[in-house]
Please model this.
Amino acid sequence: MYLIDQHTKSIMEQCKVRALGAGLHFGHESLEYIVSNKDLLELSPKVMIPTLYDFWVNDVDVLKEYGKYKLYPSNPYETVINSRPAISFYNDNNPDWMNIMIFYHVLGHIDFFQNNRMFEHTWSDDFVGVALSDKRLIASYRSKYGRWTDYVLEFARSIDNITGYFQTLARLDYPEGMEPEPMVSFYFNYFLPDVLKAAELAIYKEQERYNDLFISQGEVGVTAFFAEVKNKHPEFESAFKSFRKVDASTDLLEFIRDHSPFLKKDSNSWMKAILTIVRNTAQYFAPQIRTKILNEGWASYWHDKLFRTDERIKGHEVGYAGLNAGVTSLSRVGLNPYAIGLRLIQYVEELAEKGKMSMDYQRLILTNDKLAFNAKTGKGIDSIFELRKNFSDFMLINTFVNQEFVDMHDLFVVGKRPNPEQGTIEYYVKSRKAADYKKMLLDSLYHPPLIVADPDKTTDESLYMVHRFEGKQLIRDFIPEVLVALSFLWGGEVNLETTDIVVNKNAETEADMYSFQRVLFTCIDKNVTKTKL
Model:
């Protein structure tokens, strides 16, 4: 691995000038490295961060990658690290013209990292430097505590997918002492949409009513507002109390770090630093997995827009067309985030350019009128920059995947079924409805379970955790090992309250096929038992 030469660096700098002129915003400093396939295989288990802490699982992953590469050789074109300065890696097989396209793609990623609100908590960090400091600290612990360091790392990583990413993000938007009241947050973010199933317009009108009362009457208005809510919805108060019990802490890893009696002992206090490192690392990478479709779509949009108008494409049009098609073509089976993200961004740009986000367009009924509508607003490019600034994958899909978009690109949901005659599995078009396609996309998104500690039931001898059931049960094979790990970190008994989905094979109707049973898993002295509640 080595820095790119001055010739290639000059190409990158020319790409930066054109990208900045097109409206992208990113820091002037960046580092570009040339890497071999071997380098990529060794870096991939560490999320391409050379300075990230390592442990025995990384070695296993490297061996797996070597095995995969022998069977299915593939050469990644680039990888970008969200750090200060931004760092990117390029395969040593790339010719100059291909690097020009890839540089534009990378600059799109850097612009996204440094301007999308999902990454706001990373904007002031040099993560590569932080990771190096963390790695050195863990190395010092290994020399002092031996294999126990890796045990604690592994135990902490067993729950690093449920850190309070959105709570961390939300704190950035409120000055100290200005966080919204818990009851206000619960009413608008949970009770109205999830309990009452209120429509977006109804929620918006209720927010307006609350704001008017707060501005005109202050705390008196807020009291009157919730008095009316409790009178209209008697179940609100009990629902809020239950909600507060579950949401008392930010996330499980942080709760264990701050409240574990075992970790409070002087001889074990070093373990807290490892939990903090694991948690901070997980939070740093959290936005990337929640914006993959939009991020890749944004980078693909700009590499196509900028490279096709770059004079240096001359003579390489056919090569570029084949390469670009391989990256951004729609998959008939499966999901290509580059393709979906790119087309959604182009769709939003077209809607805004023609004024189709206006009420005038929404009022139209006839298809011909909708097709002919074009207000020529000139706001297309502004709209996608707003998209880049404020949206995540969930927001993008939930807002803009509609029947018009599905029909425009001939999208469909694929099903699988056995073919007894040929003894094979065959694919078929299961649905062309936008609702089904949107559901497929949303189901593919990252959505970790919500599990938090219940402070009312937790004691020094016992940690009590609650899983808020959202229609998917936890993977049962993982529960015993994770509970044993948490039992070590807590230094005592661990309880997990969750929900089992029970299948009734004798059900006469689909509605009666499934029922839900609240259960409690308990871990005492590495023995895990399960009881019904």
Q: What stands out?
A: The two ends are 57 Å apart (CA to CA). The first strand starts at residue 2 and ends at 3. Residues 417 and 426 are 6 Å apart (CA to CA). Residues 450-532 form one domain.
